Amino acid sequence: MALEERNIPNQNNEKNPSGQDQENKPNKKHALNTEDWWAVWLGFGLISLIIVAAFPGATLPSRWGTEGNESIFHSLPLDKVPAILLTGLIALAVFWISTRFLTKNEHKKFLVAFPALFILTIGAYVIGQYGPLRHYGFNDVIWALVIGLVISNVFKTPEFLKSALKTELYIKTGLVLLGASILFDRMLALGMLGVGVAWIVTPIVIIVMYLFSQRVLKMNDQRELAVTISSATAVCGVSAAIASGTAAKAKKEEITLAISITLIFTILMMLGMPALVSLLGMDPIVGGAWLGGTIDATGAVVAAGSMLGESAMEVASVIKMVQNILIGFVAVAIALFFVSRSQGQDQAVGQGKKNVSAKEIWVRMPKFIIGFIGASLVFSFLLPEQTVEAALPAVDSYRNLFFTLAFVSIGLESNFKVLAKGVRGGKPIILYIVGQLLNIILTLLAAWIFFSGTFFTLPF
């Protein structure tokens, strides 16, 4: 990712200090012409097309390496290539529109660079659809990051390709689409039991981790990084890192560092925790609740839960989805905290903290969260169930595509030497490990209280 910036690009239409040439500077036409707002426009525009015009979902490589589909050619058959190319054209058109308004003349370079990025993304999908490895969490997102990192660190990211690396735009638009999948009625499926695991532990872990980072690790000059790691650990990894990092105005490389740490430990936890549940002879339902509240990525939660059985997988996935609802609220809370406390302390000169205006809080709050919450409300309460069931597969297909585009971009923009500087003696790693251990212990306790059947009657 770009390195010298403190703010996510275009968040407030600020000038990019990272060395962009003049023609690529943000186009300051209107307060709504920002990257965050364009994520909302694009997300809801795509959702509207899918619902109203029965717009087709994204066509992507299929699973291979399984019985009857051993060949890699099953992932990308010739009859599927035209539909995949159409998917690429749709994605190109979607993001070209925003690029046309956000930057000066860069949209021309984007037209040339995006097809190359899309090809790399399809390559990540093909590798990530290999069944035996995918079962253990090595999916397209992981391989997208690996491909990008190899090109960036072993070779060098081609200059022409940089015009297509709209990492935050891809992932923020994907997060708006993710809101459609976060249905509030799923929370009701397990009643207050799921809420007890997903909502009680999460804020405790975030607060304790942040206090630990400031008072014990003395990360006083890395407050934004600390809160980003804390949120990623307690809520849901990558999505929470982007949302909370944006709200705190973390540096782009700080968000990248938090994501990288999260991904590495997610794989380890996904493989190790189901084995630990079996080794300890734990009730699979309690184990599923434990996995759902601690493992960061939804896909990894489902994979890990499946190792414990169908019921455990259902409990784990529902708890993770309930936990994901907190993304928007956590981001807003972080924005309020950093404006009213952190920024207020920086501004105070020999006197008490200055009052912070509502306008300043609004400016800091990530606007794409509005789209995330809005999509969740629309799909939870306004649309008929049949419409939701018909539209969600197409919405989810584009969300997965946009996330994979983002992770290829993250890899292409990341440099290990720069990331290593952010570790500073291992403090971010220590923060994550200590916080995740606390998360594991508290979530295990909550899972036993709410899902062991000792205190509450289970709904199945």
UniProtKB/TrEMBL annotation:
InterPro entries: UPF0324_pro. Residues 1-28 are annotated as: Disordered. It holds the Pfam family Cons_hypoth698. Its main location: membrane. It comes from Evansella alkalicola. It is a multi-pass membrane protein. Residues 8-21 have a biased composition (Polar residues). The keyword Cell membrane applies. The chain crosses the membrane at residues 38-61, 81-98, 110-130, 136-155, 167-184, 190-213, 225-243, 255-277, 289-309, 321-340, 361-381, 401-420, 429-451. This is Sulfate exporter family transporter. It is found in: Cell membrane. Belongs to the UPF0324 family. Keywords: Cell membrane, Membrane, Transmembrane, Transmembrane helix. The lineage of its organism: Bacteria, Bacillati, Bacillota, Bacilli, Bacillales. It comes from the Bacteria.
